[in-house]
Amino acid sequence: MKKKIVILSGAGISKESGIDTFRDKDGAWAKFNPDEVASIDGWNKNPEKVLAFYNARRRQLLEVEPNRAHELVAALEEWYDVTIITQNVDNLHERAGSSNVIHLHGELSKVCSSTDKEDPESIEFRPLDEDIIIGDKAKDGSQLRPYIVWFGEPVPNMYYAANAMMEVDIFIIIGTSLLVSPANVLAVCSNAAKNIVIDPNDVNVPEGFFHIKENATNGMEILYNSLVKLAQS
Questions:
Q1: How far apart are CA 99 and CA 82, in angstroms?
Q2: Which of 115, 132, 148 is at the close of a domain?
Q3: C-alpha–C-alpha distance, residues 226 and 67, integer Å
Q4: Could you give the CA distance from residue 184 to residue 209 in angstroms, rounded to a whole number?
Q5: 78 CB contacts (<8 Å, ≥6 apart)?
Q6: Active site positions, annotated
Q7: Phi, psi angles (nearest 5°) of residue 188
Q8: Which pick of 37, 48, 68, 152 has the fewest CB atoms within 10 Å?
Q9: Residue/partner pairs of 117-120 with CB below 8 Å, 24 or more apart
Q10: What CA–CA distance (Å, rounded) separates 187 from 172?
Q11: Which of 115, 148, 181 represents a domain boundary (last residue)?
Q12: CB-based burial of residue 103 (10 Å sphere; 0-12 exposed, 13-18 middle, 19+ buried)?
């Protein structure tokens, strides 16, 4: 039976594909007010502005590709039972070949009802080159909105993330500052035999974690070979 790896990924892994981060000094929140474009209050006040922000982010996905870190994470499935818990709303893990991805904060490639975001009947894929505009309707007749978890909304997939952590053998954190709640709780609750952080910065590494102080691609190049050898031993 394959050992189980759980990977928590954040903005750092997608940054190397050219996707803007949020919390870096030159990130999205330095250019936009999150209360205006990434909160439920912002949506209620000015949905046109919120749609414009996310339409631009959706179109950006057409211009980027998965990087080597995404590819190596996907390649681990040959040797391990891999679950990815990602804070990212892009689809780069899936495009790289990963088959089990839990999106904590939603997905840019999906749209949903603005009345009941978690109604499975309302959630659907929408081509990234088709903007969401005022007047587009969900199946329940409400205005379509991005399938994104905004500030002020619950994180329903946290339940599935917590379940994934129940029997983890190796827990890997890639490219996240561990400042975002509730995902940062997963790190302190890990009971994995091996706990690893890949990040070039001096992040708040939890006690008991081994810190590979490299960017996502370099860090995964180092870690992948070690993990394959471990699986073969």
A1: 8
A2: 148
A3: 20
A4: 14
A5: none
A6: 105
A7: -75, -15
A8: 48
A9: 117/145, 117/147, 117/153, 118/156
A10: 9
A11: 148
A12: buried
pLDDT tens, residue order, the chain (233 aa): 899 999 999 999 999 999 987 665 665 555 778 899 999 999 999 999 999 999 999 999 999 999 999 999 999 999 999 999 999 999 999 999 999 999 999 999 999 999 999 888 889 999 999 999 999 999 999 999 999 999 999 999 999 999 999 989 999 999 987 777 777 788 878 889 999 999 998 877 778 899 999 999 999 999 999 999 999 98
The tokens describing 192, both together, are 């994995």
Range(s) of the domain holding residue 96: 1-19+66-105+155-233
Same domain for 92 and 34, yes or no, is: no
How many residues are given for the chain? 233
**Are 179 and 212 found together in one domain?**
yes
Global pTM reads 0.94
169 neighbors 4 (Cβ within 8 angstroms): yes
DSSP letter string over the chain? -PPEEEEEE-HHHHHTTT---SSSTTSHHHHS-HHHHSBHHHHHH-HHHHHHHHHHHHHHGGG----HHHHHHHHGGGTSEEEEEES--SSHHHHHT-S-EEESSEEEEEEEESS-TT-TTT-EE--TTS---TT-B-TTSSBEEEEE--BTS--TTHHHHHHHTTT-SEEEEES--S-STTTHHHHHH---SEEEEE-SS---PPTT-EEE-S-HHHHHHHHHHHHHHHHH-
**Residue 160 near residue 86 (C-beta atoms within 8 A):** no
**212: closest CA among 73, 204, 220?**
220
